[in-house]
Design goal:
Chain lengths: 103, 373, 162, 166
């Protein structure tokens, strides 16, 4: 069976779901950030697969993938900076312990 | 399996391949992969020999001269000695990571040589994204070093690994920016096309880019004077303290393989690669690489080791602004200068380089203003 | 044929690595598995004939983001505590499974209009034209540049010691 | 205009190392080439003149390590001591030279040789036959004996080899 668009989309969906599961269940903030990266990558796979199979002459999907990478890089930088400053203040990065705003 | 796929084959640019270069048969790929790996290992041995002899002479010593004529067999003796040693696995190491680290470090070094143009088109894979591939893959070997440093469960190796990461993260930026200057001139990412574009070697057109790339490259592969990740006086041996036997040999190979890689890259990007009169092409390529290695060992024998804060300051305050200015100046020159008048750039760029380095070196002090560069 | 084998190998490696990321307890191993997952995604890009994107993926994710993540792990000393789950484990698993089912159902049953054109080769000049040329995404690029600058400044301000 | 701040230091250093590279190396290739040691070297062996020795045993008494062993018998004919056994354990010898200085008849000398590495500790014990001056194999050092020192060759130094070349 030749690899088609559906294969890539299913791969993308599985990766996205795994990332989603991790992002919602993990307690370590850095691991949550990693899971978000996996989700962004899953979206990128879907983008590039659409670009390859539906509009191969336009490359718009790849352009969007590049923008998603830029946003991911910015998000990682700021996110890790926030995590490190939280760690400095409170000496933990367990999301269950960071509950100052909880009523 | 990936190689035989039509999609990847179509990534290769068939026009720039020489007529007698193999393309279609899988055993050609296997054969030439083995040849490239063998060349790398032989050159690494040659580099080790050359470094030891040259440093010896620069310190008024002789260097190894006992094994074989002129000590030529010394690297082989070294390799045999290291391989025959007992491979010790300390108790508290993270076993899987500890065993995988040398392989993760070694694999990128070999795979980069797939896109290195030893002759005109004489490369395993003429990728369209050649230089980008080189920069991308070389960052994987940092992960190997970090794995080694972390899994050894040794404070010294962890400090060393942190230094590796800090150095690579900071110096990646000047490296990429100075490569971008070259790419503006060559108009292609393919390594072979970069060499083909060098009617004038880019070291003349990009003197500032060359200096930035050379210094930042030295820091990335942690050669002296930026070898503070294995500063023996502070942190014993760096990230491979706990390694012995064949695993240590692999790290040694990575270290000198990266040196060979950097000299080949400089030869390709700035010195005109395989281009040159009279001699065969591959000989020019190797000769330029050896010349670069000579300069690297010369610096190694001369300069004292920098501190970590000096290293960071050099990256962010000195190299980064200079690389940015170089990129902007090159872009303006490429846009405004008419076709075929590249030689005008040579004196202009040399003047700009001299002025910028004078201006910036006045501002950057090392060691509370006592030792100044 | 080669593309098929490559796809299956890369897909299985990628999914296995992703599952390892969410299930391993050692945070450093998690980061290494993330790197493996990102590398296999780069391989997936190659099978989709997006060579430039594959190289950029390795450069940004493996060379940049994962190194930063490892650095953050080291700075926060959370390796000993491990990466534990919170109380929502089972409900989230059910929700994720249902979500995956819906996604796959929608994807498989949608009538995609597959184009038979060959992919653009090489992609680098085409992408450059798309990004920077007439009618391209030059405004978005400028915005991305501003975003990156803002995030760098923000990160520096956040982690700066008083 | 001073250029000390503009990277001239690096250039100076590089020129120094380059100069050294084309200079003659200043090391001696040891097993083949040997430098002359000091004329007054305290080599790690003793040389003993049997003819002049009276067997008084002063050397053994002064030795702080107590490594000199001397056994004598009385010779009634010549009315003197006959040395039966004289041995030094050079493994414990600290080369202080007190035995040489204390010898009233000037029969004991420090050795001039320095290559006495052995595989067994027992082999370091110097016997009577091994230290005799008469055998001609042993060269006494000029330590405490200026007249012997004058006959020995002058010491050669690595520094001299450098100045030779320049």
């Amino acid at each position: 069976m030749s690899v088609s668009l559906e294969h890539y989309l299913v791969l993308s969906a599985v990766l996205f779901t795994v990332g989603l599961f991790g992002a919602l269940t993990k307690r370590n903030a850095i691991v949550i950030l990693m899971c978000v990266e996996i989700m962004l990558n899953a979206v990128n796979i879907a983008m590039v697969a659409f670009s390859r199979f539906i509009t191969p002459e336009l490359l718009t999907g790849q352009v969007f993938a590049i923008f998603i990478m830029v946003v991911a890089a910015a998000e990682a930088a700021v996110g890790l900076a926030i995590i490190i400053s939280i760690f400095r203040k409170r000496d933990t990065i367990e999301t269950t312990d960071i509950n100052l705003m909880k009523g | 399996m990936i190689i035989t796929s039509p999609s990847v084959n179509s990534l290769l640019n068939p026009q720039t391949l020489a007529a007698d270069w193999p393309g279609g048969f899988w055993w050609h790929w296997v054969l030439f992969t083995i040849i490239v790996i063998a060349v790398v290992i032989v050159m690494v041995m040659g580099y080790i020999y050359m470094a030891r002899r040259q440093i010896g002479r620069m310190q008024s010593r002789v260097g190894p001269n006992r094994t074989g004529p002129f000590g030529l067999l010394q690297p082989i003796a070294d390799v045999l000695k290291v391989l025959l040693k007992e491979g010790i696995t300390p108790t508290n190491v993270d076993k899987t990571v500890y065993w995988l680290a040398p392989i993760v470090g070694l694999f990128p070094v070999f795979s980069i040589f797939a896109v290195m143009p030893f002759t005109n088109g004489g490369m395993l894979a003429n990728l369209n994204v050649g230089i980008l591939y080189v920069v991308a893959i070389s960052s994987i070997s940092t992960v190997g070093m970090f794995m080694a440093g972390w899994s050894s469960s040794n404070k010294f190796s962890l400090i060393s690994a942190m230094r590796v990461v800090a150095a690579v993260v900071s110096y990646e930026i000047p490296v990429l920016l100075s490569i971008a200057g070259v790419l503006l001139l060559s108009g292609s990412l393919s390594m072979n096309d970069i060499v083909l574009a060098q009617d004038i070697p880019f070291i003349l057109l990009q003197p500032l880019g060359f200096i930035v790339f050379f210094i930042a490259g030295l820091a990335e592969i942690s050669r002296s004077p930026f070898d503070l990740l294995e500063a023996d006086s502070e942190i014993v041996a760096g990230f491979h303290i706990e390694y012995s036997g064949i695993k240590f040999a692999l790290f040694y190979l990575v270290e000198y393989g990266e040196a060979f890689l950097l000299s080949c890259l400089i030869s390709t990007l700035f010195l005109g690669g395989w281009r040159g009169p009279w001699l065969p092409e591959w000989m020019w390529f190797i000769a330029k690489g050896v010349l670069v290695w000579f300069v690297m060992v010369w610096l190694w024998a001369t300069l004292p080791r920098v501190r970590i804060d000096q290293m960071m300051a050099l990256a962010w305050k000195f190299l980064l602004p200079l690389a940015l200015i170089n990129l902007v100046v090159t872009a303006i020159q490429v846009l405004t200068l008419p076709e075929g008048s590249l030689w005008v750039m040579i004196p202009v760029n040399f003047v700009i380089t001299a002025v910028l380095i004078l201006l910036w070196s006045k501002n950057s002090k090392l060691g509370w203003g006592r030792v100044e560069v | 044929m080669g593309v098929d084998i490559a796809f299956w190998v890369l897909a299985i490696v990628g999914i296995a690595a992703a599952i390892a990321v969410v299930s391993l307890r050692n945070v450093f191993h998690t980061a290494l598995m993330l790197i493996l997952c990102l590398l296999s995604v780069a391989g997936i890009y190659v099978t989709l004939s997006a060579d430039f994107l594959a190289a950029v993926q390795i450069l940004i994710y493996v060379g940049g983001i994962s190194i930063l993540i490892i650095l953050a792990i080291m700075l926060t000393r959370e390796v000993q505590h491990g990466s534990l789950s919170n109380k929502l484990r089972i409900p989230v698993f059910i929700v994720a499974a249902v979500f995956l089912g819906v996604l796959i159902f929608a994807m498989v049953n949608s009538p995609w209009q597959i184009s038979s054109l060959p992919p653009v080769e090489p992609t680098t000049p085409a992408l450059a034209g798309k990004l920077l040329g007439e009618g391209g995404f030059i405004l978005a690029i400028e915005a991305a540049g501003v975003l990156l600058l803002a995030s760098i400044l923000g990160a520096i301000v956040l982690v700066r010691e008083k | 205009m001073k250029f000390e701040r503009y990277g001239l230091g690096i250039a100076k250093g590089l020129s120094v190392t380059l100069k050294h590279m084309f200079r003659h190396p200043t090391v001696a290739q040891y097993p083949e080439q040997k430098l002359n040691t000091s004329r007054r070297i305290r080599g790690n062996e003793l040389v003993w003149d049997r003819q002049k020795c009276t067997g008084c045993g002063t050397c053994a008494k002064t030795c702080p390590q107590g490594v000199i062993k001397i056994v004598t018998s009385t010779n009634r004919v010549n009315n003197r001591y006959e040395v039966e056994k004289y041995q030094v354990d050079t493994g414990y010898c600290i080369q202080c030279g007190l035995c040489v200085e204390s010898c009233p008849y000037q029969t004991l000398f420090m050795g001039y040789a320095y290559e006495r590495a052995k595989y067994r500790r027992g082999e370091l014990v110097q016997n009577m036959e091994d230290m005799m001056l008469e055998s001609g194999k042993k060269q006494p050092s000029g330590y405490f004996y200026p007249e012997i020192a004058q006959e020995l060759p002058r010491q050669t130094l690595l520094v001299e080899r450098i100045t030779e070349e320049e």
